[in-house]
Design goal:
This is NADP oxidoreductase, coenzyme F420-dependent protein. It holds the Pfam family F420_oxidored. The radius of gyration is 16 Å and the shape is globular. 28% of the residues lie in helices and 20% in strands. It has one domain: 3-Layer(aba) Sandwich (Rossmann fold), CATH 3.40.50.720. The strands form two sheets. Strands 1, 2, 3, 4, 5, 8, 9, 10 and 11 form a nine-stranded mixed beta sheet that branches. Strands 6-7 form a two-stranded antiparallel sheet. It contains seven helices and eleven strands. The structure holds NADP nicotinamide-adenine-dinucleotide phosphate. The site of NADP nicotinamide-adenine-dinucleotide phosphate has 25 residues, from helix 1.
Length: 212
């Protein structure tokens, strides 16, 4: 099984780090090309390679870790997904520029982000339209990337919520999550689990649970 990561920012590198720690091989990409990731892959060791977005997108499981505004542009034009698994890590938010003027109407301003209005739709439904033929599993989106570590400092395993509509895809992703050392919890179908664990304002978003 091959794994690709599209996006090498806070979340993409956080995911690559947990793959590297578990010895799971993956190809990671960003917008600037593999050479710009030389330092990262040297730091992470042999299991993580730098590649182009197209190379990462060819994997059996493709982790999409780009900003919501970039999703359509980055993954919309990639070759056919043909039943491969795409992990949607996104939350529909805009990242605020540092020093942006105060906005009392933005309940997430303290976090440096602003919700994007999807007209009542949930984000994975919109995301799925960009990857026709893929089997989408929502994962890695409910925790701050800085806290993405399988072992809790107080003992036990960090819980990762996931959801999706394809039982086999979910079973493969669950096995991967277990290999990484996290404790997976299945939140059900994409239109149930997605809204539960997504910003804004899923009740499980930003919930860092520990399985003792
Ligand atoms: N940060 C978190 O704590 C967190 C937690 C949960 C979920 N998420 C979600 O994860 C996603 C990524 O967030 P982030 O914080 O990691 O954002 P980020 O730090 O801004 O990283 C975005 C990455 O996307 C890359 N990218 C843009 N165009 C690309 C292309 N054509 N091909 C490949 N990569 C491309 C950028 O490449 P360059 O580096 O070359 O610019 C950058 O590495 C968002 O949807 C966010 O909502 C983030």
């Amino acid at each position: 099984m091959t794994i690709g990561i599209i996006g090498a920012g806070a979340l993409g590198t956080g995911v690559a780090r947990v793959f590297a720690a578990a010895g799971v091989a993956a190809v990671i990409s960003n917008s600037r090309g593999p050479d710009s990731l030389a330092g990262l892959v040297e730091e992470l060791g042999q299991s993580i390679k730098a590649g182009t977005t197209e190379e990462a997108a060819q994997a059996d499981i493709v982790v999409v870790a780009v900003r919501w505004e970039d999703v359509g542009r980055v993954i919309g034009g990639l070759p056919a997904w043909s039943g491969r698994i795409v992990i949607d890590t996104t939350n529909p938010v805009t990242f605020l520029e540092p020093g942006s003027p105060e906005d009392p109407t933005n309940p997430l301003a303290a976090y440096g982000i602003k919700p994007i209005d999807l007209g009542g739709r949930h984000s994975s439904a919109v995301f799925s339209e960009h990857v026709p033929g893929a089997r989408v599993v929502k994962l890695f989106n409910h925790l701050d990337a800085r806290t993405l570590a399988p072992a809790s400092p107080v003992g036990g395993q960090t819980v990762l919520f996931y959801s999706g509509d394809d039982a086999d895809a979910k079973a493969q992703v669950r096995a991967l999550v277990e290999t990484l050392g996290f404790y997976p919890i299945d939140l059900g179908a994409l239109d149930v689990g997605g809204p539960l664990a997504s910003l804004p304002f899923g009740p499980l978003a930003a919930s860092h649970l520990v399985k003792i």
